[in-house]
User: Fold N5-carboxyaminoimidazole ribonucleotide synthase from Stieleria bergensis.
Amino acid sequence: GGTIGMVGGGQLGRMFAIAAMQMGYDVVVYCDSADAPGAQVATRCVIGDLNDHQQLTAFAEQCDVISLEFENIPAQAIACCGQQAPTFPSHHVLATAQDRLIEKQTFRDAGLAVTPFLQVSSAADVAAFAERHAWPVIVKTARSGYDGKGQYRLQDAEQAAQVPWAEHDAWIAEQFIPFQREASVVVARSRNGSVRCFPPFENEHHNHILDVSFCPSTLTQSQIANATEMASKAAEVLDLVGLLCVEFFVQEDGRLLINEVAPRPHNSGHLTIEGNHTSQFQQHVRAICGLPLGDPNLRCSGAAMANLLGDLWQAAGGNPPWNQAFSVPNVSLHLYGKRDAKEGRKMGHLTATADSPEQAAQNVRDARQRLSCDSK
Ligand code: ATP
Ligand code: MG
Ligand code: MG
Assistant:
């Protein structure tokens, strides 16, 4: 037992709290509303602002160890927590992972393959980058983007002039990668330095938002070995404790590039709750509490996850017919307890396990399909 602090009250904090409390820990969530998905299920919550160091200290004093569930937290807030209790990931890791420029530079310096990039601040900078790397160019805010927010796919200099350059301090241009597929590896690194990787998840995005993940992926054995090695090295380079998700592009020639990392449980790992011997959330608890890491391998022949976005609620008149999903074999529903079903907002997910990843993916899509049609 003991008390784990979780900074952030979103769905990742919620699923973490459920796992940790099952394992005998108390969980204190720090967030801005008692209604937040994580606060609803935690042992207790402390309501406060991320810039309120007095309130953060009052929270941190209650904890034996502290973690977080999103990377866009002021690094100072995490440093403040770290003065009261061991905090993983550290504010150093956070400072790297919350800035796409620093993150890519760190990995490139360590010899890891990343998407070609450049810091830009104007349409002219993008045009110069495109001269070397060709159009289209992907421009992203260096900080605070998620679910594709703050991203622009630019075809020419004219489009580059439309980017709201003045709205953010720092921007990154990336070469557009015409990838074959996308995959991710969640790696756990424990307080004692032991490292274990989940098998790669294969990910399909829709409008730059994760749509469906499945496992095992279609990566070759050598790509799996490569992805696992790169993810482990990324965790070592950051000196991370906890979980790191490394997102990869599989290029047309089969080689891997790191797209980005997240120092926390990841949406693509949600299928581990039903699909794997140890879920990513339980593994996170193990890593930060210094417990032996669990077996990350699949415990079925195929697992898949489909996100449920706010759009679905709109399509189903505010009330999706949940029973319809349960007529598909081995489907599980996870709702995050969010009330406001805004377009593009992650409200929940479905998982399916089956005899193969293809079947699991088909079943999870089928289950989701049944929720959006008004079949009373
Ligand atoms: P999240 O953290 O939720 O994954 P994010 O806003 O940080 O989202 P990215 O992972 O950078 O977003 O991009 C989201 C998706 O957009 C990628 O998974 C990929 O499908 C597409 N994308 C991003 N950058 C590129 C690129 N350079 N080339 C091709 N596709 C890209
Ligand atoms: Mg991201
Ligand atoms: Mg991403």
